[in-house]
Structures are given as C-alpha cells and as structure tokens.
Amino acid sequence: MSISALEWLLSLASSWALFGLIWTIQLVHYPAFRYVPDFSEFHPHHTSSITMIVMPLMLLEIGLSAYLAYKTGFDWQWAVPLFMVLLIWGITFLKAIPLHDSLSTHREPAVIEALIRINWPRTILWTAKALWISYSFWYTRT
Predict the structure, then answer these.
(1) Burial level of 88, CB count in 10 A (0-12/13-18/19+)?
(2) Alpha carbons 19 and 40: distance in angstroms, whole number
(3) pLDDT tens digits along 36-89
(4) CB 58 within 8 Å of CB 18
(5) ∠ CA 115-54-81 to the nearest 5 degrees?
(6) pTM for this structure?
C-alpha cells in the first residue's frame, strides 16, 4: 500500500521539526544549564515550555510512525523509523525525564552532564530518522 502525499508531508515535517529541536536542546539548552544563574526558577520554566513544543510533535511522530509501519505491513522502510522512535521514547522516559526530575529543585553539575550525555543517542536517532525519511521520500519519488 502506498503512502499518500499528506502522510509523506507529515512524516517529513515532524522528523525535521524534531531534528531542529533536538539539536537546539543538545547544543544550546542543556549546556546552558551550567550557566543559568537562577537555575531553580529556570529549570521548571524550561521543562514546562519545552514540553508544550516537543510533546505534540513526539505524539504525532509515534502515532504516524506506527500507522505507516502498520499500513505498509511493517515494510523495513517504515519499520526502521518506528524502531528509532521507540528507542527515542525509551531513552526519554527511562533516562532523560528522571534526570530532569532530579534537577527540578536545584542544579547538580553531574546530573546536567549526564543529561547532556544521555541526550546524544536521542540526537543521533532523530537525525538518522530525519535523513532516513528524506532519503526514502527521494528514493520513492524519483
């Protein structure tokens, strides 16, 4: 079964939006945690604000990835991105969120460094997924 133009567009848009967001978080936000003077006020603002941006995108991405994998009979072209998304969700909920929780009251340099380290796999996975979806789009459209 083929993927519609709207499904492609949503897949490309969510992949590249999350790509841009994760690189901003990895290179700007998380390292800035080291320097924010009033960290106990900043961190709750950061987590609530970023959640309003990232959660709808992540929900769209996982729903769309599961739907497209299912729709195509779990063809490898769509099963691989779904697997990447599931890994991202696992890292997010099993590693990143608990680290954020431990930063919710005060700055802990070791936890900030752990958060930066644990975010690299998510950054790489979202980058790989955006490239995978783009390559798949190009390959199937040419």
Answers:
(1) buried
(2) 28
(3) 999 989 999 999 999 999 999 999 999 999 999 999 999 999 999 999 999 999
(4) yes
(5) 85
(6) 0.93
